[in-house]
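Intended use. Records like the one below are meant for learning the mapping from a protein sequence to its folded structure. Do not use them to infer anything beyond what is encoded.
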Amino acid sequence: MNLDLYNKYRTVPQNAQKEFKSGSFTGTDINTMWRIKMLTEEFGVCGFGWYTELIRQWSEQGANDELMCFVEIKMYIKIDNEWSKGFSAIGGSKIIQYFSNKKYSASNDEGYKMAYTDALGVACKYLGFGADIYWENDKTKYTKAEDTEPLMTQTQLNAFKDLNIDPIKVAVYYKTTVEKLTEKQAQDAINKKQNANKKAVKNA
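Structure written out for the chain above:
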């Protein structure tokens, strides 16, 4: 019974999935309207059967003069005419993005909107929406077998400390947790920090 909702929405239809690549990070994006449609189908109209509350929004300086933005929300759902307690979710995006292949930065006037959409997806994740995409180890006969990427090494974690890299911020950037950061993601963060340091020395 506790897994009824989880199992009902764990599988995402192919027409609601889209592969994406952001720098060295690749993954599967889930259509936001699919999530909203499923929330409405299960709980009712937004504001009556489910809703979100904006808790805070803020920005932080990233590498290569990028400006990151974050949104924290609380989601509430109603089951059997009883409202749940709010459960928090944080999403992130960029207000200023650096394009390494073209060597220039550009502003994004939809950064906070994208961060909110990301937070909504994280909240839906807690309900099991798209679980097969997020947790490849929770296999069923309907899910595809995929290779698991190696996790961040202790050497890389030591490099984080030496370079003053906050692993939590890196995890937020990749929409994961510190424990689940991959070796490839960690190395990308290290490379970016080292390049930023070289640039700072050169411009000094």
